[in-house]
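Q: Could you fold this chain for me?
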Amino acid sequence: MTKILADILENKRAEIARAKAACPSETLREIIEPSTRDFRGALLGGRGETLPKLIAELKRKSPSKKTICKNLDVEKIVKIYNLRAAAISILTDFKFFGGSLEDLCEANHASEIPILRKDFIFDEYQLLEARQFGADAVLLIACILEIEEIEKLLAEAKKLGMDCLVEIHSNEDLEKVLKTSAEIIGINSRNLDSLEINLETIFQLLPKIPTEKIIVAESGIKSREDLDKLSGKVDAVLIGTSILNSDNIEAKLLELTTL
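A: Sure. Below is the predicted structure, expressed as structure tokens.
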């Protein structure tokens, strides 16, 4: 594990400890209700369509690209995403990505489609937080979790009516995830150790994933040309930076979703 990933996880543990002290799990369980928006259903069947379905992401910055969207208007962008995307991904890590649970809450109020909480999740408490602030699904990153941890989080998410997008980057990750009940597998072309992107990672791992799984391609997808290469091979693509960096978000969404 590289220093950047170790630092992120160390910071996340401290965040969770503070959150638990302020509002224990038992309190959250009393006030949250199960999700009613179907993230899995929104992605289902995308492989059989001309273009993969779009999970449009909202993020302010990242370790690899310091500023993505400086003055981000969550409500405005989510309302645009509603028109073309199948689901929305919200980065909620503050220190490294500039996001927050408040961003998730604001997106939830503006969204007509399912929302994914994207963060470094390893504690059941984070699932309760995600549901409290309006998430319908969460990201689980295989390389920071053991098989038993993945399965436990999948089971807890299911109780909350939420789905899990389980992310892989390597053969080792895939072998681990296939030993769980994960139904939605994301292939991240970004190496979390080096932060470098290699789209070939997606094409190398695709043939090894059982056809009944829902497959999502993540990171480095920028253009219609990239989508055409993935058409018929994945159910959905998760795109954020290239949308948010475009001069016209609505025009970029049209490029990525119009036949």
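A (continued): The first helix runs from residue 3 to 22.
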